[in-house]
Design a protein that fits this description.
Blueprint (H helix, E strand, L loop, with lengths): L7 H22 L7 H10 L6 H8 L3 H13 L3 E5 L7 E5 L1 H25 L1 H14 L11
Antiparallel strand pairs: 1-2
């Protein structure tokens, strides 16, 4: 018996790319032209209370060294700040600056527009059904970039 919907993984990957591209276009249109989608995935881990470089590395699925370089870039561009960690004197807590939060709000607005686009194409009930079905099988919080 054939597996139903064998192309589902490819469609999900294509959907993820469409979402990433739509959010990136919205962020760029809002004036944040010096960020990449990878930065947004790091922002998602830093919000709302900050994260260590190790936590960012784990979230992105990269080495601590790669995450540290990414954090250096975000700090240099004014999107993030290094702060003393409240419970670990050896670690630094990386938090979003006001510029980082503004970029995050632009990304959130672009994501909402993307969802509205799908709701217009599929109907609101179908989008809610799709969301609920995915929530049953996808572990939340493990959002990683498709390309570094």
């Amino acid at each position: 018996m054939p597996i139903p919907a064998q192309d589902l993984p490819l469609l999900l990957l294509a959907a993820a790319a469409e979402v990433t591209d739509a959010i990136n276009r919205g962020v760029v249109a809002a004036g944040f032209t010096d960020v990449r989608p990878t930065h947004g995935f790091a922002f998602a881990r830093m919000a709302p209370n900050g994260a260590t470089v190790g936590e960012i590395a784990e979230h992105l699925g990269v080495t601590k060294q790669a995450a540290s370089q990414l954090v250096d870039e975000l700090v240099k561009k004014g999107y993030a700040a290094r702060n003393p960690h409240p419970t670990d004197s050896r670690a630094r807590l990386i938090t979003l600056t006001e510029r980082g939060w503004a970029c995050t709000r632009a990304a959130d607005a672009a994501a909402a527009r993307f969802t509205e686009h799908w709701a217009a194409a599929l109907g609101p009930a179908a989008v809610v059904e799709l969301r609920n079905a995915l929530a049953r099988v996808v572990q939340p919080g493990r959002v990683r970039p498709s390309a570094w």
